[in-house]
């Protein structure tokens, strides 16, 4: 049995296709396997932010199903960077470049897009459904039904926050370069993902710096994970918050470039009536193939795996090196 190590913007995952197994891993086995392999101490290849689980879909017109198990064993309703890598995997399996993938709450349109750079394949995925409603995030005890560009001194003084479910929950603040570099994001992220009165299910927290018109840098503290190199749904939700709260700089229906600690993605934010959707485009990189027996998968035993490197990472690193330095862009604006 082969599993892959993949990444989108260096948001790393192991990809497991349950349809290739004689017996599928149960939910408990998936949790055990994820906790083991994703942990840099007990896992392989420095661990990951989680495991992407591919399975059959029984929805009509849908190619397959993707589930997202976070590094701590919790399940996320969506993963934007992960969906791009799952899309690439499915496209290669089926030789089809455009299809739908079932996620926990929605069937999402995906498609192959032009390479991001030489030997850096890229995919585009739909991020939806979007909601601002307190019960959808969910959040409570904030005396508001929607949190859009509002100060919340209980979180941090002097910052404004926007909460968006896409449909996994995100809390976003547009901040200065100094604030971005401070410890505040980690402290707030930890607080809102421990037991707290506001986000009972935890929340992915993103701080964004506006670099120029349609250009952002986003850093995310993820629920179930901690600091990540990049969070696809986070960058998508932040792009939407940008267009809504800074309409002079962030524009609907125009490409937004989002830099992150692991690279860069492109987003386009759409509004049809009062419905929002976001397109997220970025790399879908396979760094390793891993051979593991079916019995070892079920037992979460990683002692006898055989790892082969694909050599795609050097092309990705070259692409990252060619990106403009965020500090240079920020100084220009
Ligand atoms: N990294 C993912 C999101 C994982 C979400 C997860 N941490 C949660 O909502 O629990 C992304 O690229 O969209």
Automatic annotation (TrEMBL):
Substrate binds at residues 11, 70, 80-81, 168, 204, 222-223, 232-233. The active site is at 79 (proton donor), 79, 231 (proton acceptor). The record marks 170, 222 as: Could be important to modulate the pK values of the two catalytic cysteine residues. The keyword Isomerase applies. Pfam families: DAP_epimerase. One of its GO terms (molecular function) is diaminopimelate epimerase activity. Belongs to the diaminopimelate epimerase family. Pathway: Amino-acid biosynthesis; L-lysine biosynthesis via DAP pathway; DL-2,6-diaminopimelate from LL-2,6-diaminopimelate: step 1/1. Keywords: Amino-acid biosynthesis, Cytoplasm, Isomerase, Lysine biosynthesis. It comes from the Bacteria. It is found in: Cytoplasm. It catalyses: (2S,6S)-2,6-diaminopimelate = meso-2,6-diaminopimelate. It comes from Pediococcus inopinatus. Its EC number is 5.1.1.7. This is Diaminopimelate epimerase. It is an enzyme of class 5 (isomerase). Catalyzes the stereoinversion of LL-2,6-diaminopimelate (L,L-DAP) to meso-diaminopimelate (meso-DAP), a precursor of L-lysine and an essential component of the bacterial peptidoglycan. InterPro entries: DAP_epimerase_AS (IPR018510), DAP_epimerase_DapF (IPR001653). Homodimer.
